Amino acid sequence: MKTGLVTFYHIHHYGALLQAYATERSVERCGSQCEIVDYYVNQNNDLFRRPTGLGSAAADVHTALHYAPLKARYQRFEEFSKQYLRISGHRFESLEELKGAELPYDVILSGSDQIWNPKIFPDGRFDPVFFGAFSQRRKIAYAPSFGVPHVPESMEAELRGYLAEFSHISVRERQGQAIVEEVAGKTVPVVLDPTLLLDREEWSAIAHPPAEQGYILCYCISKPGALAPYIQALAEKTGLPVVQLCGIRQKVHPKAKCVLDAGPAEFLGLFQNASYVCTNSFHGTVFSVQFQKPFFTAVAPSELAAPESSRTFSILSRLGLTGRIIGKGDTAGLDDAIDWASVDRRLEEARQSSLTYLRAALADEDFREEVSAEQEERKTPVLAERSHCTGCGACASGCPKDAISMERDKEGFLYPAVHEEACVRCGHCTAVCPALHPREPRPLPAVFAAWNRDESVRKDSTSGGVFSVLAEYILESGGVVFGAALDGRQHLRHVACFRKEDLWRLRGAKYVQSDLGDCYREVKRWLQTKPVLFSGTPCQVDGLYRYLGCRPDNLTTCDLVCHGVPSPGVWENMVRSIEARKGKTLQAVRFRNKVTGWKDSHFTTVYADGSVDSAPLFATEFGRAFGRALFLRPSCYHCAYTSLNRPGDFTLGDFWGLRPDELPEQQEKGVSLLMVNTPHGSHLFDQLPLSRQAYPAERAIAGNPRLASPIQQPADRAAFFAAYALEPFDQVRKKFCSVPPLPVRAASKVLSPEAKTKLRKKLH
Questions:
Q1: Which of 152, 161, 193, 240 is the most interior residue, by most CB within 10 Å?
Q2: How far apart are CA 445 and CA 665, in angstroms?
């Protein structure tokens, strides 16, 4: 039997060429001859290219300055292809040409890499050749990638038609699996990238290692970003030289030795002889694993926000190595060892499964993915992925065996940790996790501008003082109120309040994620005898309901319009930094103080000696970082509660959507946005002594965009937390949170974004 392989192979890219080689070898190992169909399209390896813009012109300048090593690199790629790849004798340049040819293949194999990514082709559409559309022979697919999270709706019918022609389909990432299932209704296996089908010895056999050994290898195909602190820290800690393999043109470290002449064999050799690897390349990650090198890898912000769409997350989660991804709360420390024996077991397990699929596909046999005894043993309770976990703690509070605790990660957020020795696999934690259970839709809420009639309480509140009216009503009914309060160390935690005199602790906005502790269990205990009011973020309110398993008649809940929750760890570091710079202890903090009016909120700090500092919130370091969402919890960037479908009986926020001519006499003092979401809330609302004015539901969104969509993750979040993990906090604070120099602040009012960027670069 002879297999015709359609894949990327000709472009001078390490991953593309090595995956083509590995696919060819793996097919032959499965008993079939294999030949790469020489389809040459959208691939240009010329050292010099016709300039199409500043980028290509700069590339030509770079080539001219380093012509000799880049020419050597070119020749090494060509030699590798001639020596190791079996390519068809005729070069085809179109679908029509392939259709008219007499091809000697029994099976057409759509191979690996992003051959099913429509965005990489000039017309932005699928290339039919990579779906085998030129042949009537049987078609199979091994590990192709779509490279996009979703296929445009206008292209779904086309894709469905292509996929219908395949007898066997596999994909490289979970994202691709979801696309095939959605478009074609087929459940397909996720298999290994072909470069992982060959073992370490096979790659070593064709590697050309450099003479030197013991260095930090940096292979970056984009700006190092979050990698930079790790490269610097490793260099300082180990004293090893930094070797940079060609990718990006700028140096990743001031003393880096740049290698520009490496072909595929030299690429393998550089990994083979490295002591450490820092990379943001998928195949850089793969060969770090293959050669068992301690490594750190960085991924794009979009991949951190949605790991299910990431090929790097996909393979590293399979191998138990997600801790090597930078910019996450569970990123490994510099000295953390890798359990290579465990990795090897997982890799071999996945390798055999993938090869079994490939053999079955080539032989046109059924493939059924088997689960090994070891995989069964590794099964743990199903909880939300880290990127979706809100930290509500419903799983820990609800566990009947106390087998789950909430523990801080390296970003300063609480996450559930399962203690397997105590876990009985009852599944209760899965059942109560809000992130795993979508909420039922509700009718649109009733929307009001509202304010407290007590001027002193209103003045002490962030907006209109509505929370205090609701809380006082519950307390007067003999109830208990739960809300967030700062303690003496400025740690924010949920506490119970039994007296009106203590409500001041719960008033005001606090821009930190609160520690719920045993709050849910306390609420449940008090509900047996008293009415309870619980106030918190919408994810905390939803977590409470999931934990309780019902909506008790004597429970009232109030969720908050939430920008996103900053890291408690970062906040507490900020507090300690303020105290160190001031030389005195912080006694109290007001995140939004109405000293100059509602719409000009100040960040106010009160010290043990009675002194006070106050400045506009967004002119402070913390306020600026909070405003641009620099250190929010990962789940905030795709928050499931950013809509008018709210979990609480009430929703409270600031009514920022008021026009200047609406309630002008009230705006200086502060006006609350109050949304009444449930019949229970409506019943209570009618009894509250509030000043109010009704508005259409859409007006709630006008000044509160978090009622419509989550905030976007900033591009430098991963870089911030990478630095936060390795560098002194004050150094991190200055780098990422400092207020810009006066000329930049002045220019921000008059200059274009482009001009601002140029000015900022000159000043730094």
A1: 193
A2: 26
- For 718, the 3-state DSSP assignment is helix
Give the pLDDT score at 300.
Answer: 87
Whole-angstrom Cα distance, residue 475 to residue 500?
Answer: 7
**712: its two tokens:** 């976007």
Does 3.40.50 match the CATH number of domain 2-195?
Answer: yes
Query: 71-96: per-residue pLDDT in tens?
Result: 999 999 999 999 999 999 899 999 99
Instruction: Let me know the angle formed at the C-alpha of 189 by 18 and 171, rounded to the nearest 5 degrees.
Output: 40
Q: What is the pLDDT of residue 757?
A: 59
Q: pLDDT class for 281, splitting at 50, 70, 90?
A: very high
Read off the tokens for 755. Answer: 């001009």
Domains of the chain by residue range: 2-195, 199-338, 445-712, 727-763
Residue pLDDT, tens place only, 327-340: 889 999 999 999 99
Query: Picking from 153-157, 283-287, 300-304, 669-673, which range would have the lowest pLDDT averaged per residue?
Result: 300-304
* pLDDT average, residue stretch 134-147: 95
Query: Rounded to 10 degrees, what is the CA torsion of 353, 359, 362, 366?
Result: -70
- On the question of pLDDT at 368 being above 90, the answer is no
Q: How far apart are CA 537 and CA 589, in angstroms?
A: 20
Confidence class of residue 121 from pLDDT cuts 50, 70 and 90? confident
| 563 vs 515: CA distance, rounded Å | 18
Position 56 pLDDT exceeds 60: no
CA-derived radius of gyration, the chain: 30
Q: Which CATH architecture describes the domain 199-338?
A: 3-Layer(aba) Sandwich (3.40)
| Spatial distance between the Cα atoms of 5 and 87, rounded to a whole number of angstroms | 9
The CA–CA distances, whole Å, from 483 to 497, 506, 557, 642, 678 equal 8, 6, 10, 21, 20
What does the DSSP assignment read for 570-606? HHHHHHHHHHHHHTS-EEEEEEEE-TT-TTS-EEEEE
Instruction: Give backbone dihedrals phi and psi of 744, rounded to 5 degrees, phi first.
Output: -70, -45
666-704 as b/e: b if 16+ CB within 10 A: bbebbbbbbbbbbebbeebbeebebbeeebeeebbbbbb
Q: Are the CB atoms for 76 and 264 separated by under 8 Å? A: yes
Nearest to 543 by CA among 397, 673, 412, 405: 397
Residues 6+ apart with CB under 8 A from 43: 8, 10, 11
Task: With cut-offs at 50, 70 and 90, classify the pLDDT of residue 745.
Answer: low
Compute how many other C-beta atoms are within 10 angstroms of the C-beta atom of residue 661. 6
* Mean pLDDT, residues 416-442 taken together: 93
Q: Letter for the amino acid at 660?
A: P
DSSP string, 176-216: HHHHHHHHH-----B---GGGTS-HHHHHHH----S----E
pLDDT value at 648 more than 50: yes
What single-letter DSSP state applies at residue 276?
E
Element at 354 (helix H, strand E): helix 340-362
